[in-house]
């Protein structure tokens, strides 16, 4: 199984995105967190900043939209050339319609779930998805403690994906580090967001390789 490490630029230096992106050539994708002060109690950046980042990197761009009304705002990130767009199902009015629109625009369609949202009600719409993002902290901030009570949901999601026979990535986001990644792998995740673990390391690129080696062991 392919394992991917996606550093989150939420923990990068916001005045030096290009420099920090160039410092992590080993990344399998760049995880960009859009927050709007409504869906989560924090504000980051939006489309103009993402378009600027798109121009300076060829990395797979993994958008994580923690915003209200993704039905309205998410397609523009696919149009901007981002390879993957995650919308939160709690904020989405029509997940199937939005997923189809994202795919039509050439992006991978991904659905995000907050800690209290169960995966079971979405079993029937799995064929519309390329990735499921499972939050392993409450969304809104980097550097929070990993919620190990989310591991059973990671396991249930892996079982559903396996049963479906579909190639859907399972991403965990929040508190992933050297000390928590093993549990996530064991539970069935294959795509790992790491913000503070990567950017607070002395050698961010080395940390990505360390995490991936762990995942591929
Ligand atoms: C939090 C974001 C995460 C965040 C993770 O709501 O979705 O992507 O950057 O940060 P760490 O890895 O520090 O928990
Ligand atoms: Zn995120």
Q: What features would you describe in this structure?
A:
With 217 residues, the protein is an alpha/beta fold. It has one domain: Aldolase class I (TIM Barrel, Alpha-Beta Barrel), CATH 3.20.20. Helix content is 34%, strand content 19%. It has helices spanning 17-22, 47-56, 70-73, 75-79, 95-104, 151-164, 181-187, 196-199, 204-216, and strands at 4-7, 30-35, 61-66, 84-88, 108-113, 131-135, 169-173, 191-194. Strands 1-8-7-6-5-4-3-2 form an eight-stranded parallel beta sheet. α2 links the parallel β2 (30-35) and β3. α6 packs parallel to α7 (181-187). The protein is globular and about 45 Å long. It starts with a strand and ends with a helix. Bound molecules: D-xylitol-5-phosphate (DX5) and zinc ion. Zinc ion is lined by residues 8, 31, 33, 64, 173, 193. The active site is at 33 (proton acceptor), 173 (proton donor). One of its GO terms (molecular function) is D-ribulose-phosphate 3-epimerase activity. It holds the Pfam family Ribul_P_3_epim.
Summarize it:
This protein is an alpha/beta fold and 217 residues long. The chain has helices at 17-22, 47-56, 70-73, 75-79, 95-104, 151-164, 181-187, 196-199, 204-216, and strands at 4-7, 30-35, 61-66, 84-88, 108-113, 131-135, 169-173, 191-194. The longest helix is centred in the last third of the chain and has 14 residues, at 151-164.
